Amino acid sequence: MNSQGDRFAGHARLHGHDPVDSGADTSGTQWSGRLLTPSPFAGDSGSPDAPVRAALVAVATADRARLSARERDLVGALASARLFAAVQAVPAQVDTSGAWAREIESDMASPVLTAPDGRRAMPLFTGLDTLGEWRADARPVPVGMADAATAALEDACDVVLLDLGSPAAAVLRLSQLWALAQRRLWLPAHEDPVVGAALDAAVRGRPEILNAHLEDGSVHAPGVTRLVLGLRAGLTQPQVRDLTEIVGRALATEPEIRLRIDDIAMVLRGA
């Protein structure tokens, strides 16, 4: 049995606490006036959402020509889905005064993974099976996709990793996370009318640009949008550079447009 000195932080507060007599919880917050709402996940068996799993497999097996369409199906299926966040205990206070470091307090937190290039990723899981395969000791916390996307953005994550470690693992990029968090339809940038309108505005009144349009660039990499500019013949290299910078800056400095484009590759074509 631990001695008095070895008792964990908060022992005195918890020991002998009677919620009925005190009228409050262990932190001293009164029970009266609280509104308790039922969990939207009551009775959840932890099984994966079948349409989401099917969409994940379709993305994992799609060729580059069909990748954008399969990703659109996946984001649509996720919009109303329940996922699981992996929550683990992390030390909040450690006593290093003795020969051995001793954990005094711990908190429960969702892990955030960091890539060598500094990008941050939050792992989420479609079912208890894939979460358990990744971390058997993780506590599953059910969460709606919109709330999960919002949490990832608030944690400054660049991507969400779905079913990390499974054969059908997928990556949700920033444009997809923003759409899910805002509960709006996600479209690849080359199909997004908001992005198309911004491009039209960026090239309007520039006679050196004969035409401009967006194309699916996922043949290069997932999330790439190809911006094709048709330029008037006879332009000098500095003129071409100035035009591309003007158009690129017009798209990159508009926050709403920047959130709808993950990556862009510019292609120049002469008359």
Poorly predicted runs are: 1-14
Indicate the percent of residues in helices: 25-40%
* Class derived from helix and strand content: alpha+beta
E-strand count = 10
The radius of gyration over CA amounts to 25 Å
Task: Calculate the terminal CA-CA distance, rounded to whole Å.
Answer: 85 Å
Discrete helix count: 10
User: What fraction of residues sit in β-strands?
Assistant: 15-25%
N-to-C order of helices and strands: HHHHEEEEHEHEEHHEEHHE
Largest sheet properties: 7 strands, mixed
Q: Overall mean pLDDT score?
A: 85
Overall, the morphology is elongated
Helix/strand layout:
Blueprint: H1 11-14, H2 19-22, H3 50-61, H4 67-78, E1 82-95, E2 102-109, E3 113-114, E4 120-125, H5 128-134, E5 139-144, H6 145-154, E6 159-162, E7 170-172, H7 174-181, H8 193-203, E8 209-216, E9 224-231, H9 237-252, H10 255-258, E10 263-270
Parallel strand pairs: 4-6, 9-10
Antiparallel strand pairs: 1-2, 1-4, 1-5, 3-4, 6-7, 8-9
Helix pairs in contact: 3-4, 6-7, 8-9
Explain what the structure shows.
- By secondary structure, the chain is an alpha+beta fold.
- The strands form two sheets. Strands 1, 2, 3, 4, 5, 6 and 7 form a seven-stranded mixed beta sheet that branches. Strands 8-9-10 form a three-stranded mixed beta sheet.
- The chain has ten helices and ten strands.
- The termini are far apart.
- α3 packs antiparallel against α4 (67-78) and α8 (193-203) runs antiparallel to α9.
Task: Please sum up the structure shown.
This protein is of the alpha+beta class.
